[in-house]
Amino acid sequence: MDPDTLSKTFVEHYYNTFDTNRPALIGLYQEGSMLTFEGEKIKGAQAISNKLNGLGFQQCKHHISTVDCQPSGLLDSMIVFVSGNLQLPGEEHMLKFSQMNELMIRIPVSLMFHLVPANGTYFVFNDIFRLNYA
Amino acid sequence: MDPDTLSKTFVEHYYNTFDTNRPALIGLYQEGSMLTFEGEKIKGAQAISNKLNGLGFQQCKHHISTVDCQPSGLLDSMIVFVSGNLQLPGEEHMLKFSQMNELMIRIPVSLMFHLVPANGTYFVFNDIFRLNYA
Question: Which processes are annotated in GO (biological process) (chains A, B) (predicted)?
C-alpha cells in the first residue's frame, strides 16, 4: 500500500474506532507514545486511553476533510496531518431553546499523527490535537 | 533552551522571516526537505523556496495562536504543530466596495514542522501547511 493510501486508511480506522468503540484506541498506542490534547501533555498508552475515554462527550462523529502524509526520516515512519470537523450534540441550553434533538454543532479540528512501524503494523508515537476556534 | 521555548522561538523566527524577507527562508531547508502546501508536494530547498516566493500574495502577516511540540524519536528532532491566522489584503473588489485600504482578511491556518538538528542548528525536514476553510 502506498503511504498516501495507508495514511488515509489509518485515519479512517482511527476515527471510526473513536466514534464507535473508543476504548479500543489503546491498541494503537505504546508505552512511549505521546499525546498533546489542547495543550495538555499525556504520555503512555494507558494514560492516553484514560484521557480519550474521559472526554466530556460520549456521542461524536469526526468528518475528515484533508489527509497529508510525508516520510518522517525515521525508518518507514510517516507523519500524517489531518484537518476536519468534530460533530457533537448541541449544548443542553441550545437543545432546550430549539427543541430539536438532532441539533449538532461542528467544530473545525486539526491534528497530526507520527506513525512508527512495529510488529508488522503501525502504532502512534506522536499525536497532537487542536480545536480551531474562529 | 527547553524544547517548548525552542519551538516557539523557531516559529516566531520563521514567520517573521516569511512576512518581512521571504527569500531568506531557503536557509531553513535542505536538499531532503519536504513541503506539502495545500496538498501539493514539493521537495528540496530550492523548489520549496520557489514555491513560497511565488505565492500570489506579497503582503501578509501571520498571527500564531498555539504552538505544540513533541520529540519525534529521531535524535534530538522535534515535531512542532502550529495553529493561527494568515492575514492578507482584501480582494480588489472588496477594496472597491468598501473604499477602505486597510481592509484585511484573516484565514485560519494549521501547519507542522519536523525540525532536525544539523551543524549546531535546526533545519526543516518536514513541513505541511493547510488553510482551514470553515
Answer: mRNA transport; nucleocytoplasmic transport; protein import into nucleus
- The CA distance from A24 to A14, in Å, is 10
Residues in chain A within 8 Å Cβ distance of B72: 72, 74, 114, 125-126
| Inter-chain residue contact A114 with B72, CB threshold 8 Å | yes
Q: pTM of this prediction?
A: 0.89
Can you give the pLDDT at residue A102? 56
In a domain, B94, yes or no: no
Note whether B130 contacts A110, CB cutoff 8 Å: yes
Q: Please report whether residue B82 resides in a domain.
A: yes
Domains contained in chain A, number: 1
* B70 close contact with A: CB closer than 8 A: yes
Q: B73-111: string of b/e by CB count within 10 Å (b at 16+)? A: bbeebbbbbbbbbbebbbeeeeeeeeeeeeeeeeebbbb
Whether the per-residue pLDDT at B101 is higher than 60: the answer is no
The ipTM assigned to this model is 0.88
